Structure formats: structure tokens, C-alpha cells
Q: What sequence folds into this?
């Protein structure tokens, strides 16, 4: 992913990352001249606790096909990807639609979390 983001940086200052519950994720760059998208398929989607306990109320059922997205500063995403040099055992990504990108690297007894705010 780092190599892809490094190449996309030459085209735009911003990147759209989108994902759904079916394990699909896309990285997109859109400019007046070009539109580039990289697709990732068959990604894991770990459960995050009891759905009924989240947000203090009944769970909201989301369509597994619907994408959520966040448009972020590509330089901030590159800073996070530099953390992969610690060779993590697992990497996770949470997206709050058009709000924030929450990235986590897990390595044995350590975790590195990074929050990237979405831009308009």
C-alpha cells in the first residue's frame, strides 16, 4: 500500500479511501486530468464487540455493499505508512464516513494508532 500511495502523491495532495463490510477497499485520486483507483479485495473484517452495546442503543444495520469514505491529506497517510517499518502482525483501518480515518498497527504487545481527519 505504501508504494501505491507514494506514486499517487505525485498526482494529488488528497486521497479518498473507501471501504465496505464485504472486505473491499479502494484508494482513489481524482483530478481534472486523471482519475486513478486501486482496488483491494478479500480483506478481513473483524467483529467489534456486541453490536447492541455500541452507541448505547439498538444497532444500525448497514448494507455490506455500501461504501464509507474519507478524503485525507496524502502526506499524513504517508507518515502512518512509515510506521509499517516495525513489521506489524496486523494492520486495521476504521473509517467514520467523511469524518476521520483511524488506522492501527498491531505488533506483539504494542499498538500504534493514528487518526487522520477528513478534509472537505
A:
Amino acid at each position: 500500500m505504501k508504494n501505491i500511495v507514494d506514486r499517487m502523491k505525485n498526482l494529488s495532495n488528497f486521497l479518498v479511501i473507501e471501504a465496505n463490510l464485504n472486505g473491499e477497499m479502494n484508494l482513489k485520486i481524482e483530478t481534472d486530468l486523471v482519475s486513478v483507483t486501486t482496488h483491494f479485495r478479500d480483506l478481513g473484517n473483524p467483529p467489534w464487540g456486541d453490536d447492541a452495546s455500541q452507541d448505547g442503543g439498538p444497532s444500525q444495520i448497514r448494507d455490506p455493499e455500501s461504501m464509507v469514505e474519507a478524503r485525507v491529506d496524502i502526506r499524513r497517510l504517508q507518515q502512518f505508512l512509515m510506521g509499517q517499518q516495525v513489521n506489524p502482525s496486523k494492520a486495521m483501518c476504521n473509517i467514520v464516513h467523511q469524518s476521520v480515518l483511524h488506522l492501527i498497527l498491531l505488533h506483539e504487545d504494542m499498538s500504534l494508532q493514528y487518526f487522520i481527519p477528513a478534509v472537505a
Observations:
- The longest helix spans residues 74-82.
- The chain has one domain: 2-43+60-117.
- The mean pLDDT is 87.
